[in-house]
Task: inverse folding
């Protein structure tokens, strides 16, 4: 019998074992199983599953209760109550033994000579004559010993290999790993922690609303493989927090139910053991040397930890003390009396070296005290600054925050420390906590300068995970505060405000900011301020259509930015290089930005740097590299709570999907990006997503739909479109419009693209302009423009666009009956499309070749050579044994989309199963 669908994600093996046992019992072969696992791992849920799968069984069930663990046979009394009326049917001595249990008269002496355990087995055999029997006992480790021994006696005699036909009894017990079970001969199934994919599936199952991808990943990681932790975390969040509309709390709420289960075991430990566990819980970096010194200082033998190890709560090795679950560490620390926590911190502070471990020592000193302490606050601030220089932003943030709490009477110092804590929390990817720290800092910030810096940081956060217009207003307000006090910082605020305008697709706001920044240029400007002003000037000229005026400031950005040790400056340089047509420099600058952000540990900068690195790779025709960067950036953005950054990466991926002809994935990603863009006013990803859908329409032959989308994009206002994307998509629009007979509209659109292409001197851009002229021309003039376009493509890098030009030119030649010439262009186009895995375009080209009288077959290549890059990734993950859900989580797709792709992959590779796929692929 195949197991029915179950909500117990990640427990397929356990479900199969339970279902097989039930099937065997129906055939007259009994069996037993002990399920062992940590609290919250789903033991009770598995018993419930078994009971639900056994409607044809007589069911006996019970559970261990700690309060009754000292009452002999209390557990067995609960289990046997439903069948008490059948006891008189047993042999007299056995019936009398069970009667004493049911009447509450039995004591431990009744278990001697196996009389009562044998009576229990006889009763189960009696019941099984009328049909299969299922006995389920949860928390068997909490049963009174005689009941547990009697159940184990019966369970051992249900070995399917030796069972007598007719003994159709299944006994299922659960216990924690440290319970002293199993008795010899009892089979055991140990449940392990769920993987991240299964945890994510549990999130989706128990959440009342659709959960944002970043939230799902965060909760799955915090649960550390424990499904009960997942359930409790989801229950503690609001629907808006689950949807990603509101930020998650920092830290995440405690899992009180799971913590209670752990604490029940901790309270049973000796007091010296609990003292050492509290010390370990107070210091996450407690290595073996410090542990030994701490035990000695506390006057406790290190061997006191052995009961905790035997109980399965911790593992002690040379690296220190490892808790079985983060919630266990939190529970031990949170429930300890305040005096004990302070004593533990004071002890640790006294053991740490102030010169080698300044931050940890200062932290414990601060935790040991309650009152504000000016000297200690300064010590923490100094140690936090050192941690920041080493890239430890999360640690530095916590230290700055504690230093602010210890600040005495100086609001300026408190605000400065809270601001530093917020900045480092943001760099560590904790945007929600950064916002909370800013809220605490603003009321105590003394003066316009301090408030301006705080508003600048808030605007930065909103830019990556909030409404673009809100970010613009916050950044512009910060700039106005800072102009008379710190002009260079004001320029940075204006630069960020300009970026907010760009993300919103509101070039009018950008022009306003650039105009306000221009007067701040002075001879004494720093190199970084100069680069920012040059960038603002260049983009202003482009938005005003004065492309020639943009060239000098763009070159200034490209020259000046690499001299600045800053990822943002390198991103601006990458954009400048791409606009100028210097594609190689564009890629280099973007790659340097990614490397620098990673090297500094600035987690929030990595997704942004990868975003522009993906654009650089895409714009230069390196689609596989662009896809890899966008996927990595998407994951990094979701993990650091940057919803807007994730939206940009999704839009870029949708455009790449459209090029490769992956219709289902393209529509899914584009729709997701458009939903986020509409909610947060993000015109740039909205425009990219629209372009992706239009390009997909073009590849499907839906020319009117493609033209309609791009016509709407050109007219879209802020938050819905973007001038630059509308201009870059003009070649797509010209092709679609010409095919629908709207040549005049295509000519009008081309007037916005041609001046920019001419100004860049980029062979790729000039080739696209020549192709547009060819499509808008007739007769020999069209052929002349196509040849000019191909000459320019030969000097460029965009192989995909060159192949599209060859396809269009070959199609024109074929229609003019120049079949021999047409075949030359079409063969070249087909080779490129096949190499780039642009399947739909390759299909169009084969159709054109057939129309010339030539039969074109797909080229032979490596086993997965006919797959798109997306399909190749899915195929290789499937061949490695990943499930559909695991593949979906890794590639940010839905399981249904993965299933659809696998069907196409099997068809393309002529295989029928994952086994054949694994044998085919290396």
Result:
């Amino acid at each position: 019998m195949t197991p029915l669908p179950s909500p117990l994600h990640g427990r397929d093996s356990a479900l199969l074992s339970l279902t097989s046992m039930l099937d065997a019992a129906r055939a007259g072969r009994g069996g037993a199983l002990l399920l062992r696992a940590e609290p919250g791992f789903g033991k009770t849920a598995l018993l419930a599953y078994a009971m639900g799968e056994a409607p044809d069984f007589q069911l006996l069930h019970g559970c261990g209760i700690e309060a009754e663990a000292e009452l002999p046979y209390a557990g067995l009394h609960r289990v046997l109550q439903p069948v008490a009326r059948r006891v008189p049917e047993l042999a007299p001595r056995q019936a009398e033994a069970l009667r004493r249990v049911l009447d509450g008269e039995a004591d431990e002496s009744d278990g001697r000579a196996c009389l009562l355990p044998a009576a229990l087995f006889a009763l189960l055999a009696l019941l099984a004559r009328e049909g299969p029997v299922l006995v389920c006992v949860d928390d068997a480790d909490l049963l009174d010993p005689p009941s547990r021994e009697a159940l184990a006696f019966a369970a051992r005699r249900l070995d399917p290999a030796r069972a007598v036909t007719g003994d159709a009894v299944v006994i299922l017990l659960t216990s924690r790993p440290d319970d002293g079970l199993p008795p010899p001969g009892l089979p055991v199934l140990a449940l392990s922690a769920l993987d991240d994919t299964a945890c994510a599936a549990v999130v989706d199952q128990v959440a009342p609303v659709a959960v944002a991808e970043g939230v799902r990943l965060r909760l799955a990681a915090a649960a550390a493989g424990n499904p009960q932790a997942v359930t409790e975390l989801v229950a503690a969040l609001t629907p808006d927090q689950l949807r990603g509309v509101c930020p998650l709390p920092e830290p995440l709420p405690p899992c009180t139910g799971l913590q209670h289960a752990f604490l029940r075991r901790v309270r049973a430990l000796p007091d010296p053991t609990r003292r050492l566990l509290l010390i370990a819980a107070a210091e996450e970096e407690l290595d073996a040397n410090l542990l030994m010194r701490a035990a000695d200082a506390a006057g406790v033998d290190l061997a006191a930890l052995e009961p905790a190890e035997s109980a399965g709560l911790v593992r002690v090795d040379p690296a220190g003390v490892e808790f079985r679950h983060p919630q266990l560490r939190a529970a031990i620390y949170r429930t300890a009396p305040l005096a004990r926590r302070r004593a533990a911190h004071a002890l640790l502070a006294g053991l740490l070296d102030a010169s080698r471990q300044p931050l940890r020592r200062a932290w414990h000193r601060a935790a040991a005290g309650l009152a504000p302490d000016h000297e200690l606050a300064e010590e923490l601030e100094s140690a936090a600054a050192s941690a920041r220089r080493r890239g430890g932003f999360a640690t530095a943030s916590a230290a700055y925050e504690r230093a602010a709490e210890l600040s005495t009477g100086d609001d300026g110092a408190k605000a400065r420390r809270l601001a530093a804590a917020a900045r480092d929390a943001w760099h560590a990817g904790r945007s929600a906590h950064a916002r909370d720290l800013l809220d605490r800092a603003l009321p105590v910030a003394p003066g316009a300068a301090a408030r301006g810096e705080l508003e600048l940081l808030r605007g930065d956060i909103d830019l990556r995970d909030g409404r673009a217009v809100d970010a613009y207003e916050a950044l512009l307000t910060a700039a106005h505060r800072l102009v008379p006090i710190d002009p260079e910082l004001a320029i940075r605020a204006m630069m960020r405000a300009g970026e907010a305008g760009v993300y919103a697709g509101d070039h009018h706001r950008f022009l306003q900011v650039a105009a306000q920044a221009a007067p701040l240029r002075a001879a004494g400007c720093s190199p970084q301020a100069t680069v920012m002003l040059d960038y603002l000037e260049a983009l202003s000229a482009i938005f005003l259509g004065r492309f020639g005026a943009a060239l000098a400031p763009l070159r200034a950005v490209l020259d000046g930015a690499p001299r600045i040790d800053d990822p943002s400056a390198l991103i601006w340089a990458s954009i400048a290089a791409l606009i100028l047509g210097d594609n190689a420099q564009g890629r280099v600058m973007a790659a340097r930005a990614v490397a620098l952000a990673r090297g500094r540990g600035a987690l929030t900068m990595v997704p942004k740097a990868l975003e522009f690195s993906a654009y650089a790779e895409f714009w230069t025709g390196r689609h596989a590299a662009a896809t890899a960067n966008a996927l990595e950036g998407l994951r990094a953005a979701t993990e650091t709570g940057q919803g807007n950054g994730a939206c940009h990466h999704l839009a870029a991926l949708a455009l790449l999907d459209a090029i490769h002809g992956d219709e289902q994935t393209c529509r899914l990603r584009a729709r997701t990006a458009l939903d986020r863009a509409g909610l947060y006013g993000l015109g740039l990803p909205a425009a990219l997503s629209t372009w992706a859908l239009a390009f997909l329409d073009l590849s499907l032959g839906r020319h009117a739909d493609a033209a309609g989308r791009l016509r709407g994009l050109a007219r879209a206002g802020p938050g819905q479109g973007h001038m630059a994307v509308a201009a870059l998509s003009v070649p797509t629009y010209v092709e679609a419009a010409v095919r629908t007979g709207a040549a005049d509209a295509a000519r009008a659109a081309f007037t916005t693209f041609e001046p920019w292409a001419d100004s860049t001197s980029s062979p790729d851009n000039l080739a696209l302009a020549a192709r547009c002229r060819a499509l808008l021309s007739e007769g020999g003039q069209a052929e002349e423009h196509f040849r000019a376009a191909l000459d320019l493509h030969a000097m460029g890098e965009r192989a995909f666009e060159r192949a599209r030009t060859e396809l269009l030119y070959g199609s024109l030649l074929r229609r003019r009956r120049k079949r021999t010439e047409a075949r030359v262009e079409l063969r070249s186009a087909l080779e490129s499309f096949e190499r780039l895995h642009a399947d739909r375009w390759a299909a169009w080209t084969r159709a054109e070749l057939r129309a010339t009288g030539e039969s074109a077959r797909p080229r032979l290549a490596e086993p997965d050579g006919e797959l798109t890059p997306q399909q190749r990734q899915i195929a290789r993950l499937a061949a490695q044994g990943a499930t559909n859900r695991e593949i979906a989580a890794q590639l940010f797709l839905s399981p249904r989309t993965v299933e659809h792709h696998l069907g196409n992959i099997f068809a393309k590779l002529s295989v029928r199963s994952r086994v054949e796929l694994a044998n085919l692929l290396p």
